[in-house]
């Protein structure tokens, strides 16, 4: 089984990056929804398109900005899945667990 790797990545425009993978597949990903809707202070600086365009490929397995301030793994990029994670259920379970422990 061959592992998917990022062979190259090129900034196109706005928040779009074109990826070529080692299996020769090509995918252009628009990061606009992620960048403009994310609230993390680590992501906010990359609304500046000049900063967004300054990324690097890490060993073919990820792209990163400013030493992992923001990064995406090859599997998510290959699938085109750069959505903002919804941790709502995890947070609810975590809070519920803490409340039940405190009630003891």
Q: Mind explaining what this structure looks like?
A:
By secondary structure, the chain is an alpha+beta fold. It has one domain: NE0471 N-terminal domain-like (2-Layer Sandwich). 30% of the residues lie in helices and 29% in strands. The protein has four helices and six strands, in the order E-E-E-H-H-E-E-E-H-H. The chain has helices at 32-37, 49-52, 74-79, 88-102, and strands spanning 6-13, 16-21, 26-30, 56-58, 62-65, 70-73. The strands form two sheets. It has a three-stranded antiparallel beta sheet. Strand 1 and strand 2 (16-21) form a beta hairpin. The chain starts with 5 loop residues before the first strand and ends with a helix. The mean pLDDT is 85.
Describe this structure in a few short sentences.
This protein is of the alpha+beta class. The chain has helices at residues 32-37, 49-52, 74-79, 88-102; strands at 6-13, 16-21, 26-30, 56-58, 62-65, 70-73.
CATH class: Alpha Beta
The H-level CATH homologous superfamily, spelled out, is NE0471-like N-terminal domain
Which structural class do you get from the secondary structure elements? alpha+beta
How does the major sheet shape up? 3 strands, antiparallel
Question: Which value, in Å, is the CA radius of gyration?
Answer: 17 Å
Q: Percent range for helical residues? A: 25-40%
- Annotated CATH topology: NE0471 N-terminal domain-like
User: How are strands sequenced across the largest beta sheet?
Assistant: 1-2-3
**Total number of beta strands:** 6
Mean pLDDT: 85
Number of separate helices: 4
Total domain count: 1
**SSE order, one letter for each helix or strand:** EEEHHEEEHH
Q: Quick one: overall form?
A: globular
Q: Give the strand content.
A: 25-35%
Distance between the termini: 51 Å
Please name the CATH architecture: 2-Layer Sandwich
- Poorly predicted ranges (pLDDT <50, ≥5 residues)? none
């Amino acid at each position: 089984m061959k592992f998917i790797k990022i062979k190259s990545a090129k900034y196109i425009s706005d928040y779009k990056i074109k990826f070529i993978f080692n299996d020769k597949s090509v995918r252009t990903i628009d990061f606009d929804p992620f960048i403009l809707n994310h609230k993390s202070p680590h992501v906010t600086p990359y609304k500046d398109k000049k900063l967004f365009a300054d990324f690097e490929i890490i060993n073919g397995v990820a792209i990163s900005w400013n030493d992992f301030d923001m990064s995406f793994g090859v599997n998510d990029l290959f699938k085109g899945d750069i959505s903002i994670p919804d941790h709502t259920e995890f947070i609810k379970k975590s809070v519920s667990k803490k409340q039940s422990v405190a009630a003891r």
